[in-house]
Description:
It is a single chain. This protein starts with a helix and ends with a strand. It has 2 domains: about 5-255, P-loop containing nucleotide triphosphate hydrolases (Rossmann fold), CATH 3.40.50; about 275-365, Roll (SH3 type barrels), CATH 2.30.30.40. It has a 7-stranded mixed sheet, sandwiched between helices. It has helices at about 5-10, 25-40, 90-100, 145-160, 180, 190-205, 225-270, 275-285; strands at about 15-20, 55-65, 70-80, 105, 130-135, 165-170, 210-215, 315, 320, 330, 335-340, 345-350, 355-360, 365. By secondary structure, it is α/β, with parallel strands linked by helices. Helix 1 (about 5-10) runs parallel beside helix 7, helix 2 (about 25-40) packs across helix 7 and helix 3 packs parallel to helix 4 (about 145-160). The protein contains 8 helices and 14 strands. The structure holds guanosine-5'-diphosphate (GDP) and magnesium ion. Magnesium ion binds near residues 27 and 55.
Amino acid sequence: xxxxxxxxxxxxxxxxxxxxxxxxxxxxxxxxxxxxxxxxxxxxxxxxxxxxxxxxxxxxxxxxxxxxxxxxxxxxxxxxxxxxxxxxxxxxxxxxxxxxxxxxxxxxxxxxxxxxxxxxxxxxxxxxxxxxxxxxxxxxxxxxxxxxxxxxxxxxxxxxxxxxxxxxxxxxxxxxxxxxxxxxxxxxxxxxxxxxxxxxxxxxxxxxxxxxxxxxxxxxxxxxxxxxxxxxxxxxxxxxxxxxxxxxxxxxxxxxxxxxxxxxxxxxxxxxxxxxxxxxxxxxxxxxxxxxxxxxxxxxxxxxxxxxxxxxxxxxxxxxxxxxxxxxxxxxxxxxxxxxxxxxxxxxxxxxxxxxxxxxxxxxxxx
Length: 367
Ligand SMILES: Nc1nc2c(ncn2[C@@H]2O[C@H](COP(=O)(O)OP(=O)(O)O)[C@@H](O)[C@H]2O)c(=O)[nH]1
Ligand SMILES: [Mg+2]
């Protein structure tokens, strides 16, 4: 993850949302990633199996590196209450979490609604989810009820609608393959693991490359390199996905900005009379020979009686203005009227440097 991209996006962290069935290994996965970076097995997030979700709060965990945990890594894992076939974490709450509307440590036992504690009314990019990780236990995959599978599909759909990428972390790889249980590095050679990956792919409609087998630390006392490698491979994919999300968002923002600038420019060009138009409109003041097509577009001129013809008034600039010809005036500065309003444009002279040019009459307040 490039820190430059975080800076450009104006955020300090990548938020990775962990969702999955009760007991899928969400809390253990965070503990495992934290352990890899710390260099020893940690258990900050409450993991365990009580037959129901041990985690009932929405929690944002920072990953800390090094023995002393001084260095905070620039991504955080957002742990949630587990999904259940009936009850459990509501899809509508997942949607609010994706949008950044749920504050850290909010209880997820009742629906999160506006004005309720923990509800954030004005989330920013910093609060939103930047990547979705779906956790599925390899050992319980076949037993997962259809209603639960459907909930996961819906959550993925919500992420896709928001251009958030996702992947599946297949936990408990050690539980479906005895060779992997003995030696984690066997995971990539295991037909059992391959079959499980393909099964997940067909259930959730995802390509196998987006399904990562992992093994969480749960009984180990010391970190092990093969387990670290599996987890780090998955984390690298997560960060690449989050990177793509931010890059895409910045690209879209830039494109929108450009379109807006173009629109403003065109509007100014349409407002501003060309030299020819200025001339013809001044002729038209007396001659009445100008055809209607030649008239510059802009605000209609004031009635002749209201128009000031004496060209000596002093005015102050109410809004800064920069013309296409480079002539500009600053808000608050004094200008002298050189040529009275014609079709919404007045020629003025800047007191500050003596330069003259046209500005929209509405930008000047004459005394
Ligand atoms: N064998 C094995 N057990 C795991 C693995 N991941 C989690 N567990 C166990 O599964 C249980 C539920 O894990 P937990 O992280 O609390 O699941 P959560 O409800 O999704 O947060 C705990 O007893 C963990 O020790 C894994 O990769 N392998
Ligand atoms: Mg948990």
